[in-house]
Amino acid sequence: MTSTASTTAGDPRPAPRDPSAHPVGADGVLAAPVALAALDATVDVPGSKSLTNRYLVLAAIAEAPGVVRGALASSDTLRMAEALTALGAPVDRDGSDWSVTPFPAAPPSAGTSAAVPAAVHCGLAGTVMRFLPPVAALLGRPVRFDGEPPARVRPMGPVLRALEALGVRVEDEGRGTLPFTVTGPPRLRGGHVDVDASGSSQFVSGLLLAAARFEDGLELRHTGPTLPSLPHIEMTVAVLREAGVDVDASRPGIWRVAPGPVRGRDLRVEPDLSNAAPFLCAALVAGGTVRVPGWPERSTQPGMLLPELLTAMGGVVERDGEVLAVTGTGAVHGIDVDLHEAGELAPTIAALATLADSPTRLRGIAHIRGHETDRLLALATEITRLGGRAEQTSDGLVITPAPLHGARFETYHDHRMATAGALIGLRVPGVDVVDVATTGKTLPDFVGMWLGMLGTAAGLGTGAGLGTGTGTGTTPGAPTDG
Ligand SMILES: O=C(O)C1=C[C@@H](OP(=O)(O)O)[C@@H](O)[C@H](O)C1
Ligand SMILES: C=C(OP(=O)(O)O)C(=O)O
């Protein structure tokens, strides 16, 4: 597939492509299919990354073996399962039911063979690098953490300094990033700790998740000027309570976790609503209807904001029992919104905004510069490369309508950049999404699901159908296991 070559020097547009070819070339580039007709699709979205990784942690520190049902199999969750297994809480995967044997009640004493250093590879997963150091601190042995090169610039300092304040030995040479080694004391007392979580809610979630196993529990106070992703902290509180842990969250910015047993017996994961976002947005871009079954009535996932956001941007959102349906006409409106509660949705909403008939302002998301990549910079750069107008602000983006053209869309190891590129490509012929496999971080079958959603409505902007979709408009949605 000649998906990346420019036609003339200085022309950012890719050369014409063979419309009968599979849209992912040997170079890993997705020639984003254009929607040639209105959609009529039902998309089964696999389990939530955030819930899968929280439940795995809770099951690992529980008093008895447990099962996480409906687990997402993606690189972020497989990293978590591998790490827990390496640390002494084996995770046994049987389809989407993952059985967890918890850590032994007593930590291995220094000098035994079990006291040799263990290693955790975090990949690029924020949940692994932020949730596991407090768990490792319970084990009384050195645990070395590292990750992929882009993970080494993601902020970790507040978690590491909080652990030090709790008596844990941390060797990070003061960098506040991966790699580092954490060695817990023989008895981790816990107590009170101050944390500036303006860089990531995961600093709070990680400490709270392990805190019931600290001898005195934990009182954590957030000290920073802003607090992103509060729904994700509420998710942490909710899963702890589901596991029988006593959590007081009655004072803003302060959480108290009582010491006590953790019950992780039978935990069920909801579909990942943030991963549903590009599919639901596709209905606005292409017109037609996209349905997502299993939409929870209540949830702490930030994707619960999607109905409101997509209505404001021109969609019609309806619920029929557990099915959420979004219908679009092809008209997309701009929006002015503070996304600090749902920064995870920003790349998708930004992509949708590039196709809108009025400007969009996304605010309150300075912290997403510390996500998989600097997402404000990445989005502004790639939208501009497509001919769009996107400006970074101190805490977000301003996107102004402009005619777009095809070009190479860089993804920077960021799954949500890849899905953002595919979304724009539904309307803009010739968008080449680089390294589409990066979607494997949370959605390994993204391309199959995307083609399934499009069915015979897909083409490369040439008027010819791709012929690679299922033609039924219904995606299998099953994650690849392994
Ligand atoms: O706790 C979690 O599962 C998450 C919290 C959020 O992190 P930030 O607070 O760093 O945005 C979110 O963006 C991330 O995708 C998942
Ligand atoms: C920010 C994200 O991931 P992580 O859990 O690695 O922070 C994300 O999935 O959008």
Q: Name the average pLDDT.
A: 91
Count of domain modules:
2
Instruction: State the CATH topology of the largest domain.
Output: UDP-n-acetylglucosamine1-carboxyvinyl-transferase, Chain
Morphology call: globular
Strands of the widest sheet, in order across it, are 3-16-18-17
| Fourth-tier CATH superfamily name of the largest domain | Enolpyruvate transferase domain
Characterise the protein shown here.
The chain is of the alpha/beta class. The protein folds into 2 domains: 30-46 and 270-459, UDP-n-acetylglucosamine1-carboxyvinyl-transferase, Chain (Alpha-beta prism), CATH 3.65.10.10; 49-264, UDP-n-acetylglucosamine1-carboxyvinyl-transferase, Chain (Alpha-beta prism). It has helices spanning 49-60, 75-87, 126-136, 157-165, 202-211, 230-242, 273-286, 306-312, 346-353, 375-385, 415-425, 446-454, and strands at 30-31, 34-35, 39-42, 66-69, 91-94, 97-100, 118-121, 142-146, 169-171, 180-183, 191-195, 218-222, 247-251, 254-257, 266-268, 288-292, 316-320, 323-328, 336-338, 360-363, 389-393, 396-400, 407-409, 431-433, 458-459. α5 (202-211) links the parallel β11 and β12. α5 runs parallel beside α6 (230-242) and α9 (346-353) packs parallel to α11. The protein is globular and about 60 Å long. The two termini are 28 Å apart. The model is unreliable at 1-10 and 461-482 (pLDDT under 50). The protein binds shikimate-3-phosphate and phosphoenolpyruvate (PEP). Shikimate-3-phosphate (S3P) binds next to α3 and α5.
